[in-house]
Design goal:
With about 550 residues, the protein is of the alpha/beta class. Helix content is about 35%, strand content about 15%. It is built from 16 helices and 18 strands. Strand 7, helix 8 (about 210-225) and strand 8 (about 230-235) form a beta-alpha-beta unit.
């Protein structure tokens, strides 16, 4: 005898929990499956372990585990199977067949069509047939959850196309409420620019929750800013016969062995551009707050976690908000905790959700600083509490950013950690000042040096004499206080006194300025001109090319 366990992600929304329970009861009442239970992997009761335990207690040793998810993202591909593996450890001899995600499927498309038409008709025409003109003048914004899995996002785009084909709407555009682009406001603005005057926002969600509520709020905000538009929001799919039919269809597939998973574009199996870190990533089960065997119970203030208890060390670039990488911005948007450096792009902090904890880890020259051990401890402790932590640094975390020290601390603590490269100021500052650090026939090498310790310091690892003999470009970071001593040693060991040097302060920011000088004069010039951190010094024949480059 095979039991069915319907597995949901979980939500802080009481309405969403009730809709899930109602669906489980609807499937149970159908009588097509001998025994049915439902449980969540996090956030809500009952936990999955209680649902599986109830079926095992009633004699089931074989189950069908059906993920109640719309797309094949992290929950369906990793979190639920990992949780089921833990149930097998708890119940020796337990086996299960795993169903595939629910969508895309015509039953769901029909349900979406009904929700859209109900919103389009309005309360005064509910239940009446819509004229073709009603749909022909209506654009639909189909809004999915959003994922760091490109395959899952592509499925939402596929549903948008299938929803448009043959149904007579003016158009259907996909978008996302978290973790992916385009956002709700971006989709609505795109439709407005295409000439839309009536838009129905259709949440591609099974049940109520924090994210569907956010879709409603963002749609209302956009509508208030554009009073010439008629913007309406449809209901979520919800507990209904169509959803129960699909659950039973997926159950039959699992029993019959006809489980046609899409692995061709799965980022956990196939190298997808920009997602190399996902290939082969180990999956770990959630620690559920209500699970008596959970080791570090945690709780979340929102609904879109994918990998729990992790740290991402992100390079924010040289300063401007728009020079962070796409990957870094996506992780920042999904973060629960952001530990931020003084030189990280500060404007990005204003775009964080109100519930995000921001920890100031500034290291101010000759001023207050957060000790590295304290930073490491903050990263580890918050990750162990089940939060997604982003360590936001200026430039690139592996270029004099102590990024690998933090990676080592996380790895030693058993915390999953990833690194996202950033645009280093060592290259960005000269570029923004019009200086190419290499140029054909001028410089074939570039050396990036920390000027934090002056020549002659017992802890310095720099061979200043060898550096003086080099003919290429030298870029000095953290050298505001030591530039005079560095220049003197370079000249002493053979670098030409007339070598051009450019000091670039606040690169990429509105206050950026460039101050040129000779090598033998740069110390005095920098002091006279009040050059202060953050500043980069670039020296070598390439500096002479700045006059023919872009203006600062």
């Amino acid at each position: 005898m095979t039991g069915l366990v319907i597995v949901g992600h979980g939500t802080r929304s009481a309405a969403g929990v009730d809709q899930f329970a109602a669906l489980v009861e609807r499937v149970r009442r159908r009588g097509d499956v001998a025994d049915v239970e439902g449980g969540f992997i996090e956030l809500s009761r009952p936990p999955l372990t209680d649902a599986v335990g109830a079926l095992v207690t009633r004699g089931h040793r074989k189950l069908v585990a059906l993920p109640l998810v719309l797309t094949g993202a992290g929950h369906g591909k990793g979190d639920i199977p990992a949780a089921m593996a833990r149930e097998q450890e708890r119940h020796p001899g337990l086996t299960y067949r795993y169903g595939r995600p629910l969508g895309p499927h015509p039953l769901l498309h029909t349900a979406l069509e009904e929700r859209i038409d109900a919103a389009l008709a309005g309360a005064d025409r509910a239940g009446t047939a819509l004229a073709g003109a009603d749909r022909a003048g209506t654009w639909v914004a189909l809004i999915g959850r959003g994922s760091t899995d490109p395959d899952a996002n592509a499925e939402v785009a596929k549903v948008a196309r299938l929803l448009w084909e043959g149904r007579g709407y003016a158009g259907v555009e996909p978008g996302f409420i978290s973790l992916a682009q385009p956002s709700v406001p971006e989709v609505l603005d795109r439709l407005r620019r295409l000439g839309a005057r009536r838009i129905v926002v259709a949440p591609y969600f099974l049940f109520a929750g924090v994210l569907p509520d956010r879709i409603v709020a963002q749609s209302a905000e956009f509508a208030a800013a554009h009073p010439d538009l008629d913007v309406r929001v449809a209901e979520v799919i919800g507990d209904c016969d169509a959803l129960a039919d699909l659950v039973l269809e997926r159950h039959a597939e699992a029993l019959g062995g006809d489980i046609r998973m899409n692995c061709d574009t799965c980022a956990y199996r196939v190298l997808m551009p920009g997602f190399a870190d996902k290939v082969g990533r180990p999956q770990r089960p959630h620690d559920h707050p209500d699970d008596p065997v959970g080791h570090h119970n945690h709780h979340h203030g929102h609904d879109h976690h994918h990998d729990h208890g992790s740290v991402a060390v992100v390079g924010g670039g040289p300063g401007p908000d728009d020079l962070i990488t796409v990957r870094g911005k996506a992780l920042l948007d999904a973060a629960d905790v952001v530990v931020v450096d003084r030189l990280a792009p500060q404007g990005l902090l204003a775009e964080l959700r109100p519930d995000v904890l921001v920890i100031d880890a500034a290291k101010v020259p000759r001023g207050p600083s957060m000790a590295q051990d304290a930073i490491n401890e903050a990263l580890v402790s918050h990750a162990r509490a089940g939060r997604r932590v982003v360590r936001l640094k200026g430039g690139d975390p592996y270029v004099f950013g102590r990024g690998h020290e933090e990676v080592q601390a996380c790895a030693a603590a058993g915390v999953p950690v990833t690194v996202v490269p950033g645009v280093s100021s060592a290259l960005a500052a000269p570029t923004l000042a019009g200086v190419p650090v290499t140029h054909r026939g001028v410089a074939h090498d570039v050396t990036v040096v920390s000027g934090h310790l002056p020549p002659g310091h017992p802890d310095s690892l720099v061979d200043w004499a060898a550096l003086a003999r080099a003919r290429g470009t030298v870029v000095l970071l953290m050298a505001v206080d030591t530039i005079a001593k560095i220049a003197a040693v370079l000249v002493e060991h053979g670098r030409a006194p007339e070598t051009p040097v450019l000091a670039v302060q606040d690169a990429g920011l509105p206050g950026q300025r460039s101050v040129p000088a000779r090598l033998d004069e740069i110390g005095a010039v920098a002091a006279r001109e009040g050059i202060g951190p953050p500043a980069v010094f670039v020296l070598g024949p390439v500096v002479a090319l700045a006059a023919t480059g872009p203006s600062a």
